[in-house]
């Protein structure tokens, strides 16, 4: 697999994906989006990876948005195609068969904030800044921002951020629920890896079923949602890890999950 702007590293059962265009503050051009798409093919099919971390290269930015130089001269059809590409890749992250943590060091703007929101969990450094500055550039958020921001922080705050284009700092992002945790910059990756390791210590198939039930359930009414939960709950009983987890509890010993 030949990647130009994205790095993929594995550490035990954890994968670290780095968006690697530091000179452009890791801005997402179509080449980078296609790299992320290719990395998702690998992650989806690698049964030894139980959790994923996405970060930006360098400390200044997670991702400073979609690439403005690439978008500047697009016509309506091309703009729509670029939006569809970003949305397709981000939806793949959101529905990936393992949890994804965004480790946000600095700017997470526009497509960068949208990338972080497509992840399951966001950990921010104290220096991180979030925002959707698109309206100031003459466009709407186009990689899911109009949809996911409102789902995460509520309609009022999402509309305020999107209409004003104001950036918010990490402490405000924590207050409104946009991030799960704020840590000193020097501890960011350590904290992200510790959380990934904690997730990876649980039964991987059960974690995957939890993600599936939460993601699908949030989109439908409560009757359909609990039916989805029952379906995923039932599937767990067909796994060896369910037998192992419960047997280990009864035998008062450590669990040894096999992702089976
Ligand atoms: N695209 C392209 N290049 C960028 C981007 C970007 N989003 N952000 C930064 N860069 C480049 C700069 O042009 C600069 O390049 P060069 O050194 O060649 O001049 C380099 O990165 C460093 O940036 P700055 O010199 O601007 O660094 P500062 O410290 O002065 O400022 C900021 C940092 C505040 C982050 C500033 O770079 C900035 O405002 N960047 C743009 C942020 C932004 O508006 N992001 C939203 C983009 S739109 C978007 O994401 C839409 C998503 C949906 C698309 C749907 C398509 C249909």
Structure report:
Its EC number is 4.2.1.150. One of its GO terms (biological process) is fatty acid beta-oxidation. Belongs to the enoyl-CoA hydratase/isomerase family. The protein is of the alpha/beta class. It has 2 domains: 6-200, 2-enoyl-CoA Hydratase, Chain A, domain 1; 204-251, Orthogonal Bundle (Lyase 2-enoyl-coa Hydratase, Chain  A, domain 2), CATH 1.10.12. It is 48% helix and 16% strand. The chain is built from 11 helices and 10 strands. The chain has helices at residues 30-45, 68-71, 76-94, 111-118, 145-153, 155-164, 170-175, 188-200, 204-217, 222-236, 240-250; strands at 6-11, 14-19, 51-56, 61-63, 100-104, 107-109, 121-125, 129-131, 168-169, 181-183. Strand 1 (6-11) and strand 2 form a beta hairpin. The chain is globular. The structure holds octanoyl-coenzyme A (CO8).
């Amino acid at each position: 697999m030949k990647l130009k702007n994205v790095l993929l590293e594995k550490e035990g059962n954890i994968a670290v994906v780095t968006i690697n265009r530091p000179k452009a503050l890791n801005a997402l051009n179509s080449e980078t989006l296609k790299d992320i798409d290719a990395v998702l093919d690998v992650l989806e099919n690698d049964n030894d990876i139980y959790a994923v971390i996405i970060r930006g290269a360098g400390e200044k930015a997670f991702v400073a948005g979609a690439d403005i130089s690439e978008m500047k001269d697009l016509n309506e059809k091309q703009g729509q195609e670029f939006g569809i590409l970003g949305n397709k890749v981000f939806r793949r992250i959101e529905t990936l068969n393992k949890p994804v943590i965004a480790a946000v060091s600095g700017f997470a703007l526009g497509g960068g904030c949208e990338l972080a929101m497509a992840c399951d969990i966001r950990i921010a450094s104290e220096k991180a800044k979030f925002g959707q500055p698109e309206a100031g550039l003459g466009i709407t958020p186009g990689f899911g921002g109009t949809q996911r921001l409102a789902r995460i922080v509520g309609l009022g705050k999402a509309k305020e951020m999107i209409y004003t284009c104001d950036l918010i700092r990490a402490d405000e992002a924590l207050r409104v629920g946009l991030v799960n945790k704020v840590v000193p910059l020097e501890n960011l990756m350590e904290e992200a890896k510790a959380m990934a390791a904690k997730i990876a210590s649980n039964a991987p198939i059960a974690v995957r079923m939890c993600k599936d039930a939460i993601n699908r359930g949030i989109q439908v009414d409560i009757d359909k949602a609990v039916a989805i939960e029952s379906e995923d709950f039932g599937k767990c009983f067909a796994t060896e890890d369910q037998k192992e987890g419960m047997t280990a509890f009864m035998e008062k010993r450590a669990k040894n999950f096999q992702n089976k």
